[in-house]
């Protein structure tokens, strides 16, 4: 039987102050669920297996050492190795795994997949020993690939699989699957779930959030925010699991793995309001008694007061909303957010009244913004923190490959340097080297604004803690959360990139 090894590569970080976190690789588990009946499949998650922290000059590598990755590949002797390439600034790790595979056995077929491989498949095919790249979501494409490999049929006519032919990248696009219920529930049985539950780096289960997991119930985003690359990988059409599928998924995780906390990482979980409300109803009616939140954000313009009441009743502990900018014209013409700033503020007010914890994403540093515009965003972030307890997360615009932001910066010559994957990695660091400069602002201007924001936020949070000693004691019970909340270590400024790690879990190879 064909042997397939799916690998989540190690993670390379250029600043240990950023911190490391791991996650359950949902993309790999989803792909594995589609092929486990037609091949022998194993998953090597380098972020938890034989885990080591390896220090090098200028960077740190977290995960399985490369010699142990070699041992695992030799031991399993796979015919095909699928490698997740999540972020452009982590691509070196995936490329190193590909090189290891070919060193061990040149006949191993190496397949890349994920958001980065989707956007830059030609780059990978021409610059590292990768045989194929899965473009867009990969469940059906990879299954067809395995079936044809089993049958010894040609592998170059599969929709969604890119390859090189005489030095030219070839690809027949595959249509997105509209009904996500066609996909089985991710193959959780192929990993040791307890390894994640007990892992101190597991981002889903920090502090009081024990027995937690990330989960995705829909794909696709019909909006056109200039900084976002999600639609490049998952398309613009909103596609989803049915409420009944979601219930079965939740029940499996509750009953088999004793999960009690769920992080819904959908990009638009509430876009189909009827579907989302039915999911809330089944959670309540079936007395699942779970806690849940939305770490990737939720569209505020899909909510209202009555909806929020049901959201709280169903077990929601925290909502994140993506406000982005403090000026409606910036939202409309620069960010292209397609939403109302005043309505988002109203939703923040409702959350405060209903005692739903809420936080918000903000981004500064877009081409076309002025310093005054960015100051408006910071002022709004501090005001909503003071008035409604909306904890802000301020980001600096990061021009990801394939996005409208990237194309604008490239066309206008606004890059501070010739951008490489390494520059992206440095730019993704908290207080990293900002990659955009325009006639309206420089990286130094951004730094000044950030310092103002950090000082004002810290002073208010300290004052709030002193004025609410019982609250402070409860927070102190979980020191890591307290430190993050009070921002003593000042880790909250992060250049904007799609997905904090969770989003990375959306990769499908």
Describe this structure in words.
By secondary structure, the protein is an alpha/beta fold. It has two domains: 168 residues, Cobalamin-binding domain (Rossmann fold), CATH 3.40.50; 276 residues, Alpha-Beta Horseshoe (pyruvate-formate lyase- activating enzyme), CATH 3.80.30. Helices cover 40% and strands 18% of the residues. The strands form four sheets. A seven-stranded mixed β-sheet has the order 3-1-6-7-8-9-10, with helices on both faces. Helix 14 links the parallel strand 17 and strand 18. 45% of the residues are buried. The C terminus is likely disordered.
Topology:
Blueprint: E1 3-8, E2 11-13, H1 26-35, E3 40-45, E4 52-56, E5 59-63, H2 66-76, E6 80-84, H3 91-104, E7 109-113, H4 115-119, H5 121-127, E8 132-134, H6 139-150, E9 161-165, E10 168-170, H7 193-197, E11 212-215, E12 218-219, H8 230-234, E13 239-240, H9 243-257, E14 261-264, H10 273-285, E15 291-298, H11 305-313, E16 316-324, H12 328-335, H13 341-353, E17 357-364, H14 371-388, E18 391-396, H15 404-412, H16 421-427, H17 443-467, H18 469-476, H19 479-486, E19 494-495, H20 501-504
Parallel strand pairs: 1-3, 1-6, 6-7, 7-8, 11-14, 14-15, 15-16, 16-17, 17-18, 18-19
Antiparallel strand pairs: 2-5, 4-5, 8-9, 9-10, 12-13
Characterize this entry briefly.
The chain is an alpha/beta fold. The chain has 20 helices and 19 strands.
